[in-house]
Known about the structure:
The chain is about 35% helix and about 20% strand. By secondary structure, the chain is α+β, with helices and mostly antiparallel strands. The strands form two sheets. Strands 6-8-5-9-7-10 form a six-stranded mixed β-sheet, with helices on both faces. The protein has a four-stranded mixed β-sheet with strand order 1-4-2-3, covered by helices on one side.
Amino acid sequence: MIAHPLCVGQLGEAELLERIFPRLGPTTALIGPGDDAAVIAAPDGRTVISIDTLVQDADFRLMWPSGYRTGGYTVGWKCAAQNLSDINAMGAVPTSLVVSLTLPGSTEVAWVEDLASGLAGAVTSLMFDTGRCSVVGGDLGRGSQIVVTAAVTGDLEGRTPVLRSGARPGDVLGFTGALGAAAGGLAVLESSLDYSTVREEPDQLLATLVASQNRPHPPIHLGPRAAAAGATAMLDVSDGLVRDAGRIARASGVGIDLDAEYVRNRAALLAPAAQRLGTDPLDWVLGGGEDHGLLATFPPGAVLPKGFVRMGIVQDGCGVTVGGEAPQAMGWDHFAG
């Protein structure tokens, strides 16, 4: 007799929460999961807060054209990573996450348990198990598709928040993190390639890109380091290098010129994979998002913090150029047709 997987529709809310809570690990809150609201400390006297959402078939697929199946751990990791990165980009240290889950009744309980483990795993790994942050509460609801929303708080530790609007002509543009790899992974997932075959390839080239898409590793510790080093503007690169650099340019009323050689070198690293997929790696580097690296500007003559590399300059004008030329790739827009 075949045993069918247990689905959330077969459990009550309390039973499902009893399976989720133990997977979240120790709480960092003064009062954590179990009450109507969590209580978290705010030693700085200010709280940084951000929110982001992952929607099934818009931000992830349970089954991709390549045959890759998305597990709950992957969605939990990605949810935590993208939210932690937003706090990092303000120069703050993440302190808590509150997560809302909307689930169809047919969702397997094991998938939800894995999602909880992925949330906790990302927080522990990306924050080097400092004990500064945890999932402190959330909400469960029923719906026609899986939706995962997380709100994250952060502590500035006495620093001034780094905004997008502080860049000035003459500033140096610095970057840290991956660039273009997550876009390459998305291309693999959406391709006609058989992922089970890709996964077994000796060089693991395409499988590594898929891992970058599914489980990004934003440099969480470098946001506060950049703020302490005098960063004038900063943001998380989530929607593509050109689009996100353009956000700094617009907010600051300046132009940004990306170093063409740096961009070409980054693209060259991805060229073998792009060739397999019949695409231009420059599109991944300039227009691909979801690596969650950090783009920051620093005063002229500043020594960039360890981990950052110089990749351009801030100048008079408006918009973004690459080596003085208009770029072709623009990046991700949630509402573009």
